[in-house]
Amino acid sequence: MVALPERFETQTVHLKGSHEIKDVSKTTPIYQTSVFSFPGLEEVEQYYRGERGYLYTRNGNPNQAQLADAVARLEQAEKGVSAASGMGAIMAGLLAVLSPGDHLLVSHEIYGGTYALLQKELSRLQIPFDVIDLNRAESLAPYVKENTKMLYFETITNPLLTVVDMPFWLKQAGQHGLITMVDNTFATPYLVQPIRYGADLVVHSATKYIGGHSDVTAGVLVGRADLIGRAQEIVVNYGASLSPFEAWLAARGLKTLAVRMERQCDNAAQVAAFLARHPAVEAVYYPTEASTAFFHRNHQGAMISFRLADESKIYPFYRSLRWIEFAPSLAGVETTVSHPVTTSHRAFTEEQRRATGITMGLVRLSVGIEALEDIIEDLEQALSC
Ligand SMILES: Cc1ncc(COP(=O)(O)O)c(C=O)c1O
Question: Which residue's C-alpha comes closest to atom 16 of ligand 1?
């Protein structure tokens, strides 16, 4: 034990004691510290020479690194960086590549928050973008300008769950010399690893399947080491670093990703088939086997959207669910429902709703790990309301 001065005031602050063990903890401790201490100035110099790991948690922390490294490994990426949220990771990825004057192409179906980032923040930095329907376009050629630098899309889109032909579009982007960034939040590396098809950067809202328990807000960006190095600087400079506890929670959740995904995808396939047969359901949006043929697993994901045949039943439907809760997020171990029109796509005009099919009667379902029969029973009784 360190010998401390004996005065009460000093001893209350310096809690040195027998808890300071050299034994190895089975789980990674939570490094809940804003800063790291150094025995002397030589060690500070070692940090700046890259010979010591950590200085200040905004610049780096073992829990942040554990999460980033784990996701990088699962995505087969060279390197990763964690961020305070999925949006923080997306921002870091975009700004690592784009400078004022550069142009960006994005898929027409992207998360509303990402669209807001492009429209409200990046355009202000003189980084314009164009939207491209990757399910209808035949090539990138008509959309690529002299200053186009990047292509951005989501593996499985929200809320209509269409699957972009990733191998084709990544190849096209390569032919035009574009840097590519894929939001793999809905698919996760369990289903597909975009880097194997040539993506330069892959981003996750770790708030979703990576964490898996709806108890953490976090983001991870992985990919080419040079781009991640720059993204890391952006995370530090913009103050978007992930807290150690959130990183620890996300890493703990990640350990069960494979078993959760397997169970959730199995349940979802059965629930999608049930919904497709139900007379109260007009349409089911769930990735087809053909569209996911390039996935590394024979699963179509665990998100389903469906449209009620009678739109006027939408309020009673949500009210009638007994234990499936309404929650405007996704990917937890519990089955939850959301409603795009009143949440994520609230800003859409009536015309946009009709054009995209994101109408009042559309329900988004995040399928959990419960007993399949229970999920179907609750949906069945709510659909019969
Ligand atoms: C596909 C997708 N990407 C990114 C985000 C943003 O993630 P976060 O809420 O962790 O910032 C979300 C959030 O819902 C999302 O669904």
Answer: 111
CB of residue 85 inside a 6 A radius of ligand 1: yes
Does any ligand 1 atom lie closer than 6 A to the CB of residue 246?
no
Opening angle at CA 40, ends 34 and 41, nearest 5: 90
| 58 is annotated as an active-site residue | yes
Chunked mean pLDDT (size 10), the chain, 385 residues: 83 86 91 97 97 97 98 98 98 98 95 92 97 94 98 95 97 98 98 98 98 98 98 98 98 98 98 98 97 96 97 96 96 97 83 83 97 98 94
Q: What ranges do the domains of the chain cover?
A: 41-254, 257-383
pTM: 0.96
Task: Specify whether domain 257-383 bears CATH 3.90.700.10.
Answer: no
Q: What is the CB neighbour count within 10 angstroms for residue 81? A: 35
Q: Kindly report the CA angle at 200 between 194 and 201, in degrees rounded to 5?
A: 75
Q: How far apart are the first and last CA of the chain?
A: 68
Give the integer Cα–Cα distance in Å for 222 and 91. 13
Give me the sign of the Cα torsion angle 204, 165, 192, 292. Answer: positive
226 is catalytic: no
Pocket test for ligand 1, best of 115, 152, 164, 205 (most atoms within 8 A of CB): 205
In the residue annotation, 149 being an active-site residue is answered as: no
Helix axes 257-277, 372-383, angle to 10 degrees: 40
Beta-carbon neighbour count of residue 208 at 10 Å? 21
Radius of gyration of the chain (CA): 23
> For residues 98 and 266, what is the distance between their CA atoms, to the nearest angstrom?
39
Residue 31, by phi and psi: left (phi above 0), alpha (psi -120 to 50) or beta?
beta
Residue nearest to atom 7 of ligand 1 (CA): 86
**Ligand 1 centre distance from Cα of residue 196 (Å):** 23
CB 365: neighbour CB atoms within 10 A? Answer: 26
Catalytic residue among 31, 149, 152, 183: 183
Catalytic residue among 58, 196, 252, 297: 58
For tokens 């979802």, name the residue: 268
CATH top-level class of 41-254:
alpha beta
Rounded Cα–Cα distance for residues 335 and 70 (Å): 26
Question: Could you tell me the strand order of the sheet in which 201-205 lies?
Answer: 79-83, 219-223, 201-205, 179-183, 148-154, 103-107, 129-132
